[in-house]
């Protein structure tokens, strides 16, 4: 039951994008098309899950025993940057059109504060390895869900007449705020 609570909490209740406001850059920048949003979400989810596991291992098996917790930021950033490079090379090799569609946002996963936030939050919550893994999966699914919902709404907005003063960033922020309010409704389910 505890693992289910961690998963639902990370995916819906404490969604990194809509509740903690981490990872806003790809949320706003990539969320124009559902397919590219889903791909970006899956790439980010992969990095989140793997980095959650690796950073847990580094923190608990190296930094804590040698009392080097002060190096956690450096260690976590190095892990995240390495994983993103791996994902970028993999996507470029497997799907060049997807690589081109994601453009500059793919290398920006390295600086996605949601991934670093995930690693740091898991340490603060003192999760064990399995809890950290589930937390990473939940956070990644929640991130993908937020991106895909936003992209779906933005695709539909292309078909309607949006007043000129609301076009562009204004309507995007209104939608983001509305989604954040909607996700606040999940807070009562657990």
Question: What report would you give on this structure?
Answer:
By secondary structure, the protein is mostly helical. It has eight helices and no strands. It has one domain. The termini are close together. The model has no long low-confidence stretch (mean pLDDT 91).
SS strand fraction: under 5%
Number of domain modules: 1
Mean pLDDT: 91
Number of strands: 0
Structural class: mainly alpha
H/E element string? HHHHHHHH
What is the CA-CA span between the terminal residues?
Answer: 11 Å
Gist of the model:
The chain has 190 residues and is mainly alpha-helical. Helix content is 71%, strand content 0%. It has helices spanning 2-13, 24-29, 34-63, 72-94, 96-102, 113-124, 129-157, 169-184.
Secondary structure blueprint with pairings:
Layout: H1 2-13, H2 24-29, H3 34-63, H4 72-94, H5 96-102, H6 113-124, H7 129-157, H8 169-184
Helix pairs in contact: 1-7, 3-4, 3-6, 3-7, 4-5, 4-6, 7-8
List keywords for this structure.
190 residues, mainly alpha, 0% strand
């Amino acid at each position: 039951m505890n693992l289910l609570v961690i998963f639902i909490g990370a995916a819906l209740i404490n969604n990194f994008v809509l509740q903690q406001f981490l990872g806003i850059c790809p949320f706003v920048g990539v969320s124009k098309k559902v397919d590219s949003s889903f791909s970006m979400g899956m790439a980010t989810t992969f990095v989140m899950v793997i980095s959650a596991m690796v950073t847990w291992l580094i923190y608990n098996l190296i930094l804590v025993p040698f009392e080097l917790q002060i190096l956690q930021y450096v260690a976590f950033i190095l892990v995240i940057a390495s994983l993103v490079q791996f994902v970028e090379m993999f996507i470029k090799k497997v799907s060049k059109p997807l690589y081109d569609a994601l453009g500059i946002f793919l290398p920006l996963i390295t600086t996605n504060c949601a991934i670093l936030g995930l690693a740091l939050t898991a340490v603060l919550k003192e999760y064990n390895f399995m809890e950290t893994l589930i937390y990473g999966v939940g956070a990644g699914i929640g991130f993908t869900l937020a991106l895909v919902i936003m992209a779906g709404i933005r695709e539909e907005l292309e078909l309607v007449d949006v007043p000129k003063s609301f076009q562009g960033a204004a309507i995007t922020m209104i939608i983001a705020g509305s989604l954040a309010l909607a996700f606040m409704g999940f807070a009562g389910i657990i």
